[in-house]
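hey so i finaly got around to running the thing on WYL domain-containing protein from Flavobacterium cerinum. pasting the sequence first so u can double check i didnt mess up the copy paste, my clipboard has been acting weird all day
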Amino acid sequence: MPYNPAFFSLKSIETYINPFTINDIKYQEYIHCKVVEYLEVDRSNRPEKIKVLQIHNLEDFLKGDETNTSERILEIYKIQPFISHKSSV
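ok and heres what it spat out for the 3d tokens, dont ask me to read them lol
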């Protein structure tokens, strides 16, 4: 997927897919998080590494309880934005 800055904005709440392999078994981790800092940027000022607050209970977080989080460092080239296809009802 080409880089899209909309998915890496500071202070945005995002969901990323982190694919990884352990013992030849492929997994996909879904990470709900709030982007808090760009740790490394490229020459075009696009983030390459970001610090996020990983959200452990999204519903509580959206209701204002930000205590159930942990800091995590993500490398942009290893993750994919999760894009939900919303239907109009």
